[in-house]
Amino acid sequence: VSDPHPSPAAVAESFFAAADLLRKHANTHLREQGLTLARGKTLSILRHRGPLRVSTLAGKLGIASRSVTDAVDALERDGLAQRRPDPDDRRAVLVHLTDKGRKLLEESDAPRREAMQRSFAALTPAERAELSRLLSKLRAAALDTPP
Amino acid sequence: VSDPHPSPAAVAESFFAAADLLRKHANTHLREQGLTLARGKTLSILRHRGPLRVSTLAGKLGIASRSVTDAVDALERDGLAQRRPDPDDRRAVLVHLTDKGRKLLEESDAPRREAMQRSFAALTPAERAELSRLLSKLRAAALDTPP
DNA sequence: CGAATATCAGTGACACTGAAATTA
DNA sequence: CTAATTTCAGTGGCACTGATATTC
User: Which of A78, A73, A49 has the alpha carbon at shortest distance from A61?
Assistant: First the structure.
């Protein structure tokens, strides 16, 4: 069975190991659709929040604005997103999801859910709920304790 | 409170979000010691397993041999590891941890544990045990279901 | 004027595949 | 000869800081 009193460091280690593994799985499945986790996340945010400024997008993604410039460059190169001037502020651009991007996102949704379903199917619904609860607790604590 | 029936996709999302955040925290603290997660993990494996071949190290790290070459290059450049010929197989090299590497690893251990302590302190010992159990279940399932 | 916005320039850490050299 | 081991060459994804032009 498991250690009844795992140290924080030990839990952290399991946590990162599991995250790496699941991420690798998710990435594999996404890659078949021509996506990556970061790209998928960006497109997904754009779908849910509509056209966004680079800086807003950076905030949602938790990365620097400069990095978003590169990311949007790549998405634009592949025709998945498009920059358009913000009509209300000539300093800003709004990043739009293109039809192609929207379509790709929809097509990748089912396989992505399937992949996650496979990985998380090992847990019972109750365990998933408990995991979810623990994760949000962790996340809140981490946000409360800036590095 | 939380959703009593989170979908696998939703749990996956929280999972990756939490992992990103914790990783960022851990990285910040490690960086103060001149380390990164990947470098720390490599050194840690070398400490526990002794001198290893590049291919063995690649297996433990879960990455391609070629990537280990680069990683060891960097560690060797910083004097934390050292390549030596394998006396039993002239094709192979053994990657050794240097005294400097060992020392750095020891010095970084306390702050790393502290950082994880801070993050995971939000969970009770029972919750940590439960999380640990769920993680190993997830990990086992993922290993059983190759992408 | 100072503040906000996005981009340019340069860099770093980390991973990959495929081909080559050496040795078992 | 075949297989194993490591390295070389080239590339890709993703992120960073600092400086700059434009606009609010």
Answer: A49
Under DSSP, is residue B96 helix (H, G, I), strand (E, B) or coil? strand
In this predicted structure, what is the pLDDT of residue A17?
83
Residues 9-48 of B with CB under 8 A from A: 9-12, 14-26, 28-29, 37
pLDDT at B94 over 70: yes
Task: Identify the H or E element spanning B32.
Answer: helix B8-32
Pick from A1, A20, A37, A38: nearest CA to A119 = A20
User: What is the tens place of the pLDDT at every residue in A108-132?
Assistant: 888 777 878 888 888 999 999 999 9
Q: How many CA atoms lie less than 13 Å away from A97 in the CB half-sphere?
A: 21
Task: Pick the residue from chain B with its C-alpha nearest to A110.
Answer: B9
Q: At what angle are helices B99-120 and A125-144 packed, to 10 degrees?
A: 110
Instruction: Output helix, strand, coil percentages for chain B, rounded to the nearest 5.
Output: 70, 10, 25
CA distances from A68 to B33, B48, B74, B107 (A): 28, 39, 28, 35
